[in-house]
Amino acid sequence: xxxxxxxxxTRSVRDFVPKTPGQVxxxxxxxTVQAGPHIGHLRSxxxxxxxxxxxxxxxxxxxxxxxxTDIDDKVLQKALEADQPFWSIAYANERLLxxxxxxxxxxxxxxxxxxxxxxxxxxELIKVLIDKGHAYPxxxxxxxxxxxxxxFGDYGSLSNQRPENMEPAADGPARSKKDPxxxxxxxxxxADEPSNAYWPSPWGPGRPGWHIECSAMCWRYLGEEFDxxxxxxxxxxxxxxxxxAQSHAAGHPFARYWVHHALLNLGGSKMAKSLGNVVSLESxxxxxxxxxxxxxxxxxPHYRSVIDYTPAAMEEAAVAYRRLENFVQRAFELTSSAExxxxxxxxxxxxxxxxxxxxxxxxxxxxxxxxxxxxxxxxKVSVARWLxxxxxxxxxxxxxxxxxxxxxxxxxxxxxxxxxxxxxxLEQRTAARARKDWAAADAVxxxxxxxxxxxxxxxxxxxxxxxx
Length: 468
Prior knowledge:
There is one protein chain. The protein has helices at 39-57, 73-82, 86-103, 119-131, 210-222, 236-249, 281-286, 291-299, 311-335, 345-352, 357-376, 380-397, 404-434, 438-450; strands at residues 4-7, 12-15, 23-28, 61-66, 135-137, 145-147, 183-188, 206-208, 225-232, 254-261, 264-266, 269-270, 307-308, 453-458, 461-466. It is globular, with a radius of gyration of 27 Å. The chain has 14 helices and 15 strands.
């Protein structure tokens, strides 16, 4: 079966046919790094990671671009509030985002370009649009450059809207625009923005508009035409609509497929820091949910289904994952089989059907139920066969309990548990010494020594190390 994906541009599920046989180019709109990520942001990373893994498993060579928007109204506002350079705010949050993706087992992109690293490409693209009559510098001396929406006849086709029904674009003063719906390609210097957030340009010092950066970076890394452009459904308009307009107007065929994931809501509203209704990875981990369980929660629904977050739903997903994990661990203990097996046809068909992870996981759980019977009977040969197939499926989804990613994470969890238990024993030893119960204190020390833990008394208190 051929992979089929829902294409927002045609509002239909289409056979996926790449531009170049055997190769796939993907551009995923990354985050604006004015703050750290929440799990609503992380759905994007996990969903497209599964798509990428499935394409790789299907034999494609994948170039995966995920950008960083490090210059933007929101970033500049945060910089002013913190009295720090905008790049300091952006870089700190970029590092935090990368660490969070790593914890969730999201593969690093082929390239992760920053907007501020591609100013020359933006200038070149803007010049092409001006020369072709699709953009114009403002005449009020502001240094702004705008895209002429009415000059592009197909404007609104992605979001199925018409310009006459659209609100004005709120990214520049209406007085400097030919039409209120025109959007900014280049923004001139503003008195209420940081003085270090500008670059020279043919139209005066300024900074890029939000939309031009992605068109420029797609062009730079994937060429004038590429296969898949991804992002959240909330980006369809105006961001992706504007990307299409400026890229097509410049003569670029641009993306062949537009793949959008639905949002993750909290309390009936989109999860957003501006609304104060966010849940972070860190807060979930502190509450006892493991990153692998969070990844399972994010990939379990179909990517085009809205997720309404509740702690109960997260716990339900964690319990479901533990059932799979429990089988894998017990089966491995019985068989010592570490080889990945063949993927069941039903699993492959589910992922080929518009990346239906919900149906794919149903296949996994059904197989585990059958395999548990063989496990209970001690049938090593059958269990080894089941284990190979189940791990192969979980590997595609990025949640194989025996993968290096999650085994190392479990080792880290075990270290924290051991540290807590040893600290408790040392507290008991300190209390025994305080009441001059030397026998009890020595007994604790001897028990730790027998467990391979050396205790050293220092001026700041006891410290422990593993004996060599």
